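Subject: Interface between my chains keeps coming out wrong

I've been trying for a while to get a sensible model of this assembly. When I model each chain on its own everything looks fine, but I need the whole thing in one frame so I can look at the contacts. Pasting all components below, labels as-is. Any help appreciated, I'm running out of ideas.
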Amino acid sequence: MDGPQEKPHLLEIRGLVKAFPGVLALDGINFTLRHGEVHALLGENGAGKSTLIKALTGVHPPDAGTFLLDGVAIAPRDVADAQRLQIGTVYQEVNLLPNLTVAQNLFLGREPTRFGLVQGAQMRQLSRVLLADYGLDIDVGLPLGQYSVAVQQVVAIARAVDLSAKVLILDEPTASLDLQEVAMLFTVMRGLKARGIGIIFVTHFLDQVFAISDRITVLRNGRLVGERVTATLSRRELVGMMLGHDLAAQQKQGPADAVAAKGPALISFRKVGKRRYLEPFDLEIRPGEVVGVAGLLGSGRTETAKLAFGITRADAGTILVEGKPVHLRSPRQAVRLGFGFCPEDRKVEGIVGALSVRENIILALQARRGWLNRLSRREQQAIADRFIKLLDIRTPDADRPIEVLSGGNQQKAILARWLATEPRFLILDEPTRGIDVGAHDEIIRLIKRLRSEGLALLTISSELEEIVSYSDRIVVLRDRHHVGALTGSDVSVERIMSTIAATGADAGARAPAAPDRPLASLTLP
Amino acid sequence: MTMIRTLRSFHGATQVAVLLAVLLANWLVFPGFFAIRLQDGRLFGSLIDVLNRGSPVALLTLGMTLVIATGGIDLSVGAVMAIAGAVAATLTRDGQGLPVVLAVSLAAGLACGLWNGLLVAVLRIQPIVATLILMVAGRGIAQLITEGQIVTFVNPQLSALGSGEFLTVPMPVVIALGMLVLSLLLTRATALGMLIESVGINRVASAFAGINTGAVIVAVYVWCGLCSAVAGVIVAADIRGADANNAGLWLEMDAILAVVVGGTSLLGGRFGLAPAIVGAFIIQGMNTGILLSGFKPEFNLIVKATVIMIVLLVQSPAWRTFSLPSLPSLQRKHPGRTVP
Amino acid sequence: MNQRFLPLIATIIVFVVGYLFCALQFNHFATLRVVMNLLTDNAFIGIIAVGMTFVILSGGIDLSVGSIIAFTTVVLAVLIGSWHVNPWVAFAMVLVLGGAFGAGMGAIIHFFQLPPFIVTLSGMFLVRGLAFVISTESIPINHPLFAQLNDIVVVVPGGSHLTLIAMVMLVVLGIGTVLAHLTRFGTNVFALGGNRVSAQLMGVPIARTTISIYALSSLLAALSGIVFSLYTAAGYALAGTGVELDTIAAVVIGGTLLSGGAGHMLGSFLGVMIEGLIQTYISFDGTLSSWWTKIAIGVLLFMFIGLQRLLTVVWAAKASAPSRPASGKAAPADAAGPRPQRA
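Reply #2:
Try treating it as a single job with all components included. I did that and got this:
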């Protein structure tokens, strides 16, 4: 790839394939990690980053493909096995044990013992020395859970580094670190680089990618988009790779049939926000209008939806429906107000797996009617049949458990659940994620039809072409702020990307922590 | 007929088939098993005896099924029986009329259920832990009510609930069937049954669909408390007294066993009240069978343990897939993460 | 300060306050004799509380211990009384039997992914049933060794003495404390109770640890059965009824988190002592009835569960304090987290 080398690359992944029922999560991925480099692995949700890491660490054995570590083929059976092969991982969610002490976490499974007894004092001493390298001076005898997530993350890194000397996988380690901590982590990473350790760095903070990484590999929908040397890549090019657009093909305009809905807003959010969750935002949605929400992963898209549906309670601002202030403290109240919400995580937050398609479709309507006012079996069947036909939900019959349906059909059933309630306002969080191409187009057609029928829609998507094709307006988020609202001719992939990419240019290598986010203390909270 | 519905009716059919097999086995060891005679306007016979003696557990099973369907469990049903029995016996001894006695003892059961439900739904304490409190303290409360004595009473009206008959059928059986009908109406004629199943399968998604999940959970524990109280009153009425130490002792275990035998998963979700009731009578049928066959009643416990293990092992995912135990656990903890 | 010790501190306070209260009420309460009796009378519960602590720390529960006590006493009575087996050999046999039974339950719990509650419940039925099948009568044990063992005492000042079974309990407690808090096995138990998946990812041998925990619990229950047979000089299939509940309550009152992962062995000992204290108080008082024991234990149980719940909520709020931009999966207002693993 980059000239002849005397020794093989540290890690080579060739033709990695991994399929889950209904989803091809990884489709022939190649990936190369060199000695002493930081290699950023980027992509939106569902791109395949986590699957790649889980395949590499033996959690999900690959269907095809090879791993070469220093030129030797390896097949890790599980995480512990990967660790033995010197591939250490720090997962997205801290995978340590908050109930054990810091020292116990660092030395679990390899505690210094004498006559079978754990040498606590020695272990704590070793822990202090170990953590000193990371600038942490804490009481290692206290439970890990007593420290901030930032400290926990550093402890996780320290453990992984101490266990493994070759490959270190950091899966979004900086997500909850502040500026100072990120800087410290980068120092540590550079030190590890100098020792020849290869680091796979998964993050969604572009500034950090440019600040620390040597190379970048971008995945998208389970496929390899490309590998680039960081120094030769512009911010805009990177955003384009991640969101699936060439710079050339960015002239796509808003919907041709966009007739911006006029008249008073159906829903108004006035300075609605929640501390440490989402900065207060203003948003108005009219009947017959689609407002798109765009932004990179972690920018506050889903948070916007959850505040709007009462799942997370806002601690600031007012919400008006048809000009009248409303209380929105639970999804139940949202449903009564005529709201609906199709969540991003369909399996956990959407479907009720073992219930039938019919029951899943009538669930929200039944919940709103109350338990005493049961929909008769015939009414249920009629509603289910109507929507199965209307949305073309492919199921042998309405009594099939919804969990056996494909993702696209599950998504349509969830949509049907809300349409059955005849909502005024529908929130769709990644409505086309993880579903096949046919269903994808149908859902987009449906969104357009619902708009023409006078529904107010708030749609979140990382598919920019898609969101541009049906949105009347687009709200752009960055770092949990609503940073832009695009209307009219500004509704274009080009404008969204430039709005998203705006910061980095002027901020340089600054690590992107929200400026007003309180500094997480390194000492005891 | 669809797959799932055939499967469900098939499940019910399994329980009935097992019950018939158990009864048949009883008949083999005791030829007079199916003999029923009418005497003084009341049916007698071993079969009637199975139904009569199985009724208290059948009542507990009704409430327990709903609780387990939400993914919970209620360990306190035996203690609640003791409390309700103690209330009924004490009030009757003190000369209260039947309406007052019934109202107060059933109210005691409702209050116990409400307590459990609030601990689980509002304080979000694990069900097994939350109901353990009342399991421990409840028997003490019952003893407090009876002041540690076996309270006896003479009240033909109340006694009729335990040892009387209605249209020749023993009263406990009639009451158990009546409560079954009531429970079925409550859950299947309304939407409650589906909401219970929905909450038991996926509480988060249910909440997002606008279901008041807390209220559903409180409701099932309250119903369970009521069913336990009814069972407690029947037992007290039958023995014409209340023994706070022994009333309902270990019956929570029988009720859980009946639910498991009845095909409702301990993880919650789909439930069947009628199969669970059949499960309760299967257990009683086995008890009676062991007695009739001349084995010591002590074998009961062993048979119960064996049955419960077989049913659970066959139901367990590991048994079905023969997969490594480590992987399913990983996937279960991060349900949304298998496909990132 | 280590916040995880808060429940343990609460336990110590309850015990000290309770003891002082009793001592002020009754003249003879503050004597070594009462303390020694407390240790002797609760020795068999103290021993199983050690095993139960391991089980609960790992996030499990063991309902079979009371039955194992009964089974052990009956088997001992038959082996020694009818079959004239050497008592020491009989002791060894029941211990091996107990350990093997527990290992079996642990294996079922692990490999079939069944809730510990239901597996040990069947174990409880099975073992109690076996005890009944052997004998429903109380069988006296008249072996001279039993008398000899009961005569082994350490005389303490004040004319009272520390009995052998109390010593056995204290030794078991000591070993259990070391095992729980100073060995790799102990750390693995805590790890398992903290988060099974994380523990597995960090290389904790889940299968071996789970099986060992239940084997240990049953082994100690068998030992407790031996102690119980010494204490009562009889084998009885109804022995130890409800002991599992008293033990679970003692462990919780001792500050161990019922969902696992946090607690201290000494707390469980104090929990047993608090229960003993309540009983002793009631017997000293003479006018109070025995049911107040159950109610008092229930109230304490509620207080400690409430305290733990409160602390868990506070800690969870604190741990998630710096919001995590990556997750995007904040706790919904009306939705529980993952379904509790234990039924």
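Reply #3:
Confirming on my end. The mean pLDDT of chain B is 85.
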